[in-house]
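Ligand: coenzyme A. Inputs:
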Amino acid sequence: MGAYREAYERSIADPEGFWRDAAADIDWHRPPQRILDDSAAPLYRWFPDAELNTCHNALDRHVAAGRGDQPALIHDSPVTGTVTTYTYAELRDATARFAGALRRLGVQRGDRVLLYLAMVPEAVVAMLACARIGAVHSVVFGGFAAHELAVRLDDARPKVVVATSCGIEVDRIVPYHPILAAALQEAEHAPAHCVIVQRPQHPAPLTPGRDLTWDEALDGAEPVDCVPVAATDPLYVLYTSGTTGRPKGVVRDNGGHAVALRWSMKNVYGIGPGDVFWAASDVGWVVGHSYIVYGPLLTGATTVLYEGKPVGTPDAGAFWRVAAEHRVAALFTAPTAIRAIRRQDPAGDLIGRYDLSSLRTLFLAGERLDPDTWEWASQRLGVPVVDNWWQTETGWPVAANLRGLEPMPLKPGSPSVPVPGYDVRVVDGRGAQVPAGTDGSIVIRLPLPPGCLPTLWGDDDRYVRSYLNAFPGCYLTGDGGRFDTDGYLYVMGRTDDVINVAGHRLSTGAMEEVLAGHPAVAECAVIGVADQLKGQVPSGYVVLKAGVDVDPDTLAAELVALVRQRIGPVAAFRRVTVVPALPKTRSGKILRRTMRGLVEGRDEPVPATIDDASTLAVFRDLGDAG
Ligand code: COA
Ligand code: AMP
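Predicted complex:
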C-alpha cells in the first residue's frame, strides 16, 4: 500500500491516533491528553485540554532552535519599489513590541482586533501580535467597501482597528481612510482605538484621542511574551461570503489550526524548514492566512509577501522575477493569475528570462483549474502544476495531490484525491452516495479534521443550519462534482449562490440585495457567468417597477456604481440588463441555473416547473449574442 493510501485509511479509521501523532510537531504549553471532544456532536472540538501559543510556534520556537538569522518574511513590493527582509529574530521582536502596543491599548485575551491592511509587513506583524496575546484577529480584504467593513465591525466588535492609510493598486493609490471613516460612521460598534500605518504615498488624517499612528503605538511599548491559550480558543475570525448579504464569520481555533497547517506544509506542499514558500494571494483571504502567514512560519520556512499583481507590476514576468530572485521552492496562486499572465505572454517568453531552477511546484487553488490553463502552465514551466481544492471554512486543502507524502499522477481538471482527515463523499439529493462518474453534492463526513471551522462567530445555530442540516452527519461543502473510478475528485462548481470572480469568493445574494434597494427595481437576479480571464463574473438582470420610465443605460450605470460603493471594486460588477420578467417556477423560485445556461449559450431544457416559458426568450437571445 502506498504512503498516501496508508495515511488516508488510518486518518479515517483512527482519527484520534492520526492527529495525536501529527500534534507531536507542535510545541505545546500543555500537551493534549484528549484528542477529540465529541460530547456536543455535531459540534466537535480538537485537543480540548491542551494549551499552546500559535505565535510561539510561528516565531519564538524557531529563534530558540537557531533559526534567528534565517529570513522569515520577504516583503517584495513592486508598487513601492522596495524589498524588505525580516529574519525570524527581527519578526519576533517586531511582533513582541506590537503585542505590547496592543496590550497598552487595552487589548486582552479573547478581545478582537480588526485589520484592514494592504499587503505590508505590518499586516503579518499585527496578526501574529494578536496571536501572541491571545487576541482574535479579523482581517478584512482591502477591496471591500465601507458597508462590508461596517458589517464586520458590528459582528466582530473589535476593541482596536489596525489599518493602512492606503493601498496601492498597480499605480493607483486607494486611500483606505475614507472607507474606514465611512464604515465607522455606519457601524453601531465603536472600537476604542484605530492604529494607522501611515504610508508616505498617502498619509491619513487622524482623529485625536481615537487614532494613533503605528509608530506612536509602538513608541515606548514593552515587548511581551507569548501567552498560553486553550487549543480551542479562537485564533481568528475570517468573514466569507454566504448566500445572503450577511457574511459568515468563520472561526479558526489555535490548536487544530497549528497541527493541520504544519502537517499540510510537509505532506501536501512538500515544504520544510528553510524552504522559501510564496503564496501570491492577499492576507485578506484564507489562502493568505494559511499559506502566506501561518503555514510557512509554523514550519520554519521563509514566506514571501508580494504587494503587486501578476501583470502590470511591471509586466507578465513579475511572478517569475519574484520566484527567481527569492529562490522560491513552491509558488501558490489562483488559476486566474496564470490566465492573466498567459493573455499578455501567450508563448511564455518572459518565463525564459529568469532562473527558475529553485521552483519545484506550482500550486493553484481558489477556483476551478481549467485543463487548458493547467496544460499551458505545465508545459511552459516544466514543473508539476498541482490543483488543490478547499474553502475558507476548511482552512487547508480537502483534495490535493500530496507532493510531500506521495506524489501521484496528475489529472487535468481534478484536484486529485481527498486529503487524509477528510472523509469526502458525493451524494444525491437524498444523501445517498452516488457511484463514480455521477455528479452530486460534495459533502464531508463529520468530524471535520483539525483546522476546519468549529463554528461561526457567535452563531452555533447558523453554523448548524448552513452546513450540517442538509445531510445529517455530514458537512455540506456547497460544491458539486464527482469521483472517477480511480478515486480522483472533480469539483465542478458551487451549487448555491456563491460565485468565484478572479479567485475571489462573492455572494450573488449580497449583490441582489443592493440592486433590489434601487427605487426603480421591482425584482432582480444576479448570476455568475463564465469569463475567460476571471473564471466567472457577476451579471445582473433587473425588472423595472410598473410605470417607471428610465433610460436602461443610465439605470445600469447607477446600479454598477451602487454595487461598487456598497460591496466594493472586488465584486467586478459591470453588467446589468433590464429584462421584462425573470424566469420562475410556479412557486416563485427564480430559475438561476437555467438563466445561466442560456446566457452562456447552452441549449438548456425548459424546466417542467416553469411558470411562463416565454420569459426565457431574452436570456436565449443574450446567449446567442454573446
Ligand atoms: N484594495 C483595493 N482595491 C482592490 C484590491 C485591494 N486590495 N484588490 C483589488 N482591488 C480592486 C482592483 O483595483 C479592481 O478595481 P477596478 O475595478 O477599479 O479596476 C477591482 O478591485 C477588481 O480587482 P481584481 O479582481 O484584482 O481584478 P483586476 O482586473 O484588477 O486583475 C487579475 C485581474 C486576474 C490580475 C487579478 O484578479 C488577480 O491577480 N487575481 C488573483 C487573485 C488571487 O490571488 N486570489 C486569491 C486566491 S489564491
Ligand atoms: P474560498 O472560501 O474563498 O476559498 O472559496 C472556496 C470556493 O472556491 C470553493 O467552495 C470552490 O467553489 C472554489 N474553489 C476553491 N478551490 C478550488 C479548486 N481547486 N477547484 C474548484 N473550485 C475551487
